[in-house]
Amino acid sequence: MTSHRIDAALPDEVLQRPAAGRWLARWILIVTAGEAFGFAVPALVGVVAHDAPAFPVLLPLAGAVEGALLGWAQATVLAKRLPELRRGAWVALTALAAVVAYVAASFLTAAADSWLSWPWVARTALLLTIGAVILLSIGVAQWIELRRHLAHAGWWIVTTFVAWLLGLGLFFIVATPLWYEGQDILSAVAVGVGAGIVMAAAMATVTGVAMSSFLRATEEREEGSR
């Protein structure tokens, strides 16, 4: 009886904090796992099949797997707060965006002999363009579905840009010193997977904090309009 009286006396905002904290923790855990497992696929392809003629096709396909697993993980957690979210559309859009990002990155690598000889202005413009495509692809794709459910969903594009900029930056900070010429396949894959986990955790944390805030704002707005 006493606990019920205390709960009744507390503001809704205070009562909702533990639930919001549990949701955020669940997002970080599941999204980190989804992205980490997903990234292991292109990491493995990149090490094992780098010199294969089919590599330009295999890498984007591996990226599609990564995107699908990331999208599935995010949709699984989001569905608790957005029951009308179209999970299949979210997963498909995320997978497609990952393919776009990997194709853009692959083009930059494959055409390096050509664009590295361009004037510095042209090289800078190309790098900025490709970088923007890579960092914005997932956010823009997911916004197509998210705008149906969240107010001001465009901020999700900014959020994912920052999250992937941080995540990819940490990936290269961790992995680059540990990769070396002539490294055996197993250790090279292990480095990529380990750095991928760091990348995934950073991305999941940034997007989780932002999404929790977006959801809370939308829920408060809906409650105020009743």
What are the SSEs and their pairings?
Elements: H1 2-9, H2 12-48, H3 55-78, H4 87-110, H5 112-115, H6 120-146, H7 155-175, H8 185-224
Largest sheet: none
Q: Approximately how much beta-strand content do the residues carry? A: under 5%
Number of helices: 8
Note the gap between the termini. Answer: 30 Å
Radius of gyration: 20 Å
Order of helices and strands: HHHHHHHH
Shape: globular
Class based on secondary structure composition and strand pairing: mainly alpha
In round numbers, the mean pLDDT is 88
Residue windows where pLDDT falls under 50 for at least 5 positions = 1-15
Count all strands and give the number: 0
Percent helix:
over 70%
What features would you describe in this structure?
With 226 residues, the chain is mostly helical. 82% of the residues lie in helices and 0% in strands. It is built from eight helices and no strands. The protein has helices spanning 2-9, 12-48, 55-78, 87-110, 112-115, 120-146, 155-175, 185-224. Helix 2 (12-48) runs antiparallel to helix 3, helix 2 (12-48) packs antiparallel against helix 8 (185-224) and helix 7 (155-175) packs antiparallel against helix 8 (185-224). The longest helix has 40 residues, at 185-224. The relative contact order is 0.13.
